[in-house]
């Protein structure tokens, strides 16, 4: 069990995060960022949440042999090497995040998604409503439930079996192309529902406009229930589904 390095000498070469620019930028500037956050960035990105420092410290310790490692040994040739523990943080640590993405994608493909037709949906909300989610991140879970309810009701009604259930995977993303706060949902959903015996019933081709109207209503009702808005008749046109 040999790990080929870039120089093809059959030697395992551990990554060295402390030598890259991203690591040095975080290490040298995160304390300054914490000090100026409230004045410079809170209005745009929300308050400085308590777990942010935990994420940063875990990333700075990621891949450090002095903080723990596993000894990997080949039973055939007795070659061995030390594998440092990783932080396993998503998004902030490039290495751990990429590994999580690959592993989760493989898990979905091999263990979750059935061999039936699927469709991708994107549920987004406008800038006018994003502030509620920026300062109350628990609303993101409720936003996911809104999307689930809308898709579930739509697919069940068009399948003709009220006891059937669709397959849906929802991923919450809180940033846009320019790293601005833009909470939205990426959804993989079956184009139908599964009956209790496992048979799949294909639903009528979903129409985005139909789902969009119901999603608008569900999101605004949820925000009203949570005390974020008083009325939503004037806002009923600003939630999008693609």
Structural description of this entry:
InterPro entries: Transposase_32, Zn_Tnp. It holds the Pfam family Y2_Tnp. Residues 167-231 form the Transposase IS801/IS1294 domain. With 242 residues, the protein is an alpha+beta fold. It has two domains: 17-95, no CATH class; 113-241, Alpha-Beta Plaits (2-Layer Sandwich), CATH 3.30.70. It has helices at residues 21-40, 42-45, 51-61, 94-112, 127-135, 139-159, 208-225, and strands at residues 69-73, 80-84, 118-124, 168-175, 181-190, 192-194, 200-202, 240-241. A four-stranded antiparallel β-sheet has the order 4-5-3-8. Strands 1-2 form a two-stranded antiparallel ribbon. Helix 6 (139-159) crosses helix 7 (208-225). It is flat. The N and C termini lie far apart (47 Å).
Give the overall pLDDT as a whole number.
87
Number of strands: 8
Q: What portion of the residues fall into strands of 2 or more residues?
A: 15-25%
The separation of the N and C termini measures 47 Å
Shape: flat
Query: Which oligomerization state do the chains in this entry correspond to?
Result: single chain
Strand/helix succession? HHHEEHEHHEEEEHE
Would you tell me the structural class of the helices and strands? alpha+beta
Question: Would you state the CATH class of the largest domain?
Answer: Alpha Beta
Pfam family, one: Y2_Tnp
Domain Transposase zinc-binding: 34-125
Domain Transposase IS801/IS1294: 167-231
GO molecular function: DNA binding; transposase activity
